[in-house]
Each structure stands twice: as C-alpha cells, then as structure tokens.
Specification:
The structure is a homotetramer of 129-residue chains.
Chain A (H helix, E strand, L loop, with lengths): L12 H15 L7 E2 L2 H8 L3 H13 L3 E4 L3 E4 L10 H18 L4 H15 L6
Antiparallel strand pairs in A: 1-3, 2-3
Helix pairs in contact in A: 1-3, 2-3
The structure holds a DNA duplex (15 and 15 nucleotides).
Chain lengths: 129, 129, 129, 129
Amino acid sequence: MIIKINFSSETTINKQIKNQIIEGIATGKLRRGESLPSIRRLACDIGVNMHTVNKAYSQLRADGYILIHKQKGVIVNADQIRKNKKYKNILEEKISPIIAESICHGLNKDDFIKQCSLIFENLIPESKI
Amino acid sequence: MIIKINFSSETTINKQIKNQIIEGIATGKLRRGESLPSIRRLACDIGVNMHTVNKAYSQLRADGYILIHKQKGVIVNADQIRKNKKYKNILEEKISPIIAESICHGLNKDDFIKQCSLIFENLIPESKI
Amino acid sequence: MIIKINFSSETTINKQIKNQIIEGIATGKLRRGESLPSIRRLACDIGVNMHTVNKAYSQLRADGYILIHKQKGVIVNADQIRKNKKYKNILEEKISPIIAESICHGLNKDDFIKQCSLIFENLIPESKI
Amino acid sequence: MIIKINFSSETTINKQIKNQIIEGIATGKLRRGESLPSIRRLACDIGVNMHTVNKAYSQLRADGYILIHKQKGVIVNADQIRKNKKYKNILEEKISPIIAESICHGLNKDDFIKQCSLIFENLIPESKI
DNA sequence: GTGGTCTAGACCACG
DNA sequence: GTGGTCTAGACCACA
C-alpha cells in the first residue's frame, strides 16, 4: 500500500499516516497479518521524520490496529478493534458538528444521508462487511 | 442560547465555541438576525479569555455564519452559507476517515447510515428542512 | 442627497458618511454653496449617533470639503481642496496596495486601467471636469 | 525580501506586512514556492510581536497568498488567487471613494488614469504580465 | 525548531 | 459600552 502525504494540508502528517492505514484496513487493502513497512523504511519512503512515523505507529498500536513484533515487524491486527461499545458515543461526538455544518450549507437529512452513502460506496465499492 | 465549555476536552475552546454556535444555527435555536453576546460578555460568561472568543467569532464571520452589525452587535447570518458548491468535497474529506474508522469498529454500511440517521434526528427532532 | 449606511459593512459609519458626501461633491450632486443637513437632522435621518455625524463633519471640514457656519449651517465648499500638491503621494500610497492585489488576482496593466476607467465613468457618466 | 514597518503610519502593522508581501508577489520579487521567514523569525527581524505576524500570515493564508508547508515552512502560493470573479466588485468598492477624492482634488479622468498608469509602472517597470 | 492556542493587560477609534 | 489591534509570556503537539 502506498502512503501519500500532503505537506500543505492542515491535517498533521502523523494523522495522515494513521488515517491512510486505517482506511487501508477498512477497505481491505491491508489484511490481518499483513506486514507494514518498518518505521525507518516508511519514514524514508514518504520523506518524513522517523519520530513522526514512530508516533503514528504507536498510536495505531494503542488503538489496536497494528501489532509491533520485535522480529516479525509491524503487523496489521484488524479484528482486535470491534469490541468497543462506547464507539457510538465517539462517533456521535465526531459527526454531530459535521452534520450541523452540513445543515448550514443547505443539506437536509436525505441529502446528508445520500452523501454519506456515496462516500461510503466510494470507499468500499461492493459493501463487503 | 447557552454555551458550555468542556475545559478537559481535547477539542479546542475556540472550536467548541464555533461548533456550538453552528449547531445552534443548524437546529434553529439561533435564528437569522438574532443577537449573540458580545465578545467580552461571552468571554466572561464562559470563563475564557476575550481573545479566544474573538478568534472564534472572527472565523465564524469569515465563514459567513455571523456578522458584526454596528448597532445590534454580533448577529446570526445563516442563509449566506448555502451556496458553496465545493462543500461536498469538504464533507467527503471530513467524513471519509470517520467511515474508515467505523468500519474497523465493526459497522457495515447500514449500521453507519443508521447511526448517522439517529444522530441527525437527535440534533433535529422533526426534520424541518 | 440621500445617505445610506450599511451597518454590517467593515467600513466605519463615520467613513461611510464622509465617502458619500465626497462622492456627492465629486459627481456634482452636491454643489458649492449647497446646504447639508444639520448634524442632528442627519443623525436622526440615517439612524446613527449624533457624535458619529459630528465627527464625520469635523473631518470633512478639516479636509476643506465643507464649511460650518453658525447660522447658515453646513455648506459645501468644494473648490478649496484643489491646491494640495502632495495629493499624488497620498494617491500612490492608497492605490499601490490595490494594484498589487489586482495583479495577484490576474489583472494586467490594461485590465486594471480599463477597470478604473469603467468605475470612473460609472461614477461620472459624462466626464464633466 | 525585506519587510520594513513604519511604526508611525496610520496603517496597521498587520496590514503593512500583508501589503508588502502581496506587493512582493505582484512584482515577482516573491515567486511561487519561495520561502518566507517563520512567524517568530519575521517578528524578531522587524521588531514586532509574534502574534501580529501570525495574524498577518493567517489572513494571507486564508486569502490564498501563502500556505504552510510542513517541511518547507511558509511558502508563497500566488497563482491560486486568480480565479475570483467577484474581484471586480471588490475593486470597485475600494477604488470608488479614491476616485471621488481625486476628483475633489482637481484630477479629471485622464489625470487619474495617467496617475494610475504611472503608479502601476512604478510597481512593475516592464509590464511582464 | 515550528505553528497553534490560550491567557493577560493595554490602547485605540468607533458608537 | 463595543470590536480591533498590539504586546508579552506561556504551553502544547508536531516535525
């Protein structure tokens, strides 16, 4: 999987890395057990500081997305996540302000749902899960 | 409308103010032409520095949510926003990573749409728009 | 002449009054010797504070645009201005940043001159002076 | 590029910084991709507070003149701006009062256009665009 | 080191 | 009283 950084984005590099790996897992491009490049390797490939990649990996591990083996290296660990019951609250906190903003931009409920649906399909063409 | 700040939140105070005002406009609690507290007043009420409120207001004004009326003070502008055609792209950029995250937490498309729908209804009980 | 204030403008009320009176003089709507409404009268008409009108009038007088007689009231005094030799410097200071901005918005010299010409004609249909 | 602040000017420091950078871009002294000094650096160099520079930079960024590159720092963006169709209205609003003032100072249309032309040439010796 | 945010105290012109 | 601007000192996460 290729990670591409936008250095002029408002989103931090750290978060861009995390987002793209999570997206990779979500779309199935990265499967459970698959290897990710080492910290040094990825840092070099995308031209950023090692510390930045290190932090992204650490946070992904803390959230259960990946495992870091001393020998096998960095391994995807998708299924670990699914348990979190509180995620609905987190989701609401993240989505509420976006919905409010959308309404102010003239979208009604159907518009918003339709957009979400499109974006979802755009991410995962045939809904696999 | 009462604005309440969570000082231990990871969300910036600045952003909390913006979000709550946008939400107020979206839900209809704040109507076009209605007055908002002055910078100093709000700063005092919620216990933050004047400059923090000032920045939030400045950004809201730049985005067209509010305007400064020389006599009425700070007033809600709302409808001004609705035109932006590019908003769908902005929406996609904001929602894509959330969708990816949701999938990793075990939500499929229907689950996600259902959650969005619930959150939307939660925000605007009877969909007015 | 009717003065119209935009209370949501970034331009100060004070300055809006000045600008419109100067424009009135420039376009010939206000002629030398003509009367302007009293401070109280104008303040009442356009719904602003007396002090604001007072300040606008004072500055117009300081710049030589009007005279304030105790008995005749406020009188237009156009021709007084014309002597100022330094005005070209003032003009340059005011216009330079606008030109720079125009260039950044893609206007070349001809475009800019053409726009200025149009705006000028728009202000004074048949160039009288 | 050297930025020079006139502390006794009526023009805000904030605006002086913006104007000079925009002028730099317009005249080609600052080219697309070129680096600008960091906020702290510039603040120190011209002897003003960091926050003043920060505000100027923020506004320049909001207007598309510059962008923050995570590695290169603050860089010139230029061409991004050129699209704005509404700019002619903005231009008219800014120039109209200046034209009115010029007329009152005895300039006719030809005088005014000639002055603008001179100022333009003064800014960009051989018209490159 | 950077930009971003928050706090605090001050001055100004405006209304 | 208001918003706008400037200064000063501080903390943070990021790179």
